[in-house]
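Reviewer comment 2.1 asked that we show a complete input and output for one of the modelled complexes. We chose the nicotinamide-adenine-dinucleotide case, as it is the one discussed in the main text.
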Amino acid sequence: MGRMEGKVAFITGAARGQGRSHALRLAQEGAEIIALDLCQPIESVPYPLPTGGDLAETVKLVEDLDRRIVAREADVRDFSQLQSVVAEGISEFGHIDVVCANAGIGSWAPALEMEEQMWQEMIDINLTGVWKTIRAAVAPMVERRQGGAVIITSSVAGLVGFPNLSHYSAAKHGVVGLMRVLVQELAPYMIRVNTVNPTTVDTPMVNNDAIFRLFRPDLENPTRDDAAEALVGLNALPIPWVEARDVSNAVLWLASDEARYITGVALPVDAGFLQKVGGTPSVLPE
Ligand SMILES: NC(=O)c1ccc[n+]([C@@H]2O[C@H](COP(=O)([O-])OP(=O)(O)OC[C@H]3O[C@@H](n4cnc5c(N)ncnc54)[C@H](O)[C@@H]3O)[C@@H](O)[C@H]2O)c1
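Response of the prediction step:
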């Protein structure tokens, strides 16, 4: 018996990266999956976002594990779209047990130079989108009175400030605050709420030219290996990044009955980043 046998997990941002990895890890342990992703470009985001083909690949990979999945293109900024996906998922599987509010974007600029659009898109997706996801997907869990688990993807930037990421840090701190309130509001229904707070994760959000240039402004055409050399300095363990599956394993544990009385935790998956002295270097060159 898998650790998620009989459970249904609702996952946002599941076309690729950590969201896809969470879908596969939970499915490996027996979960049925309800997945959504925007699958479209966003103006203030300087790296390529996934397409419908990426979401279709997630579907295939889950089905290859002999698990069922309902996957839709939808925007976490749109509450009615979220409600539709929740309704479709429940009509297929009957209930939701686990919510992974994972969808998010990255962008960067100094706070006093940031365009309003960059600020607003970040807050709308990485903060308000998390609240809307939970508002839509947890309501039926409360109604069902069978408990459950909510795992919000924050970041180490939800626990310490990063220069040039004012909007991202504000949003990621914001979801930790949201988690702390929801812990109390949802505890009477035996619904647990935690965040995961990863350091750099090797996903397309990081594995792209814009990020390579950001971390290696000294090079004309920096490569992934060049960026890795700079990123390794952020973590206490001598690694440039964790893998998506490292975060998925933390999500799986928080979602499982093994963590049945764990609620209110902001769990670093950070290779010691937060304990490293002076571990918050600027992510933008002078
Ligand atoms: N990669 C890292 O270094 C890192 C570190 C800490 C936290 N995070 C967080 O992890 C989460 C997952 O990111 P990832 O690393 O897998 O990056 P990713 O870009 O591969 O995946 C993010 C997914 O979210 C989707 N998405 C974005 N806006 C959306 C919207 N409005 N509606 C629906 N879906 C939307 C994207 O299309 C994409 O598929 C994000 O919340 C991110 O902020 C990432």
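Strands lie at 8-12, 32-37, 69-73, 98-101, 148-153, 191-198, 266-269. We note this here for comparison with the apo prediction described in Section 3.2.
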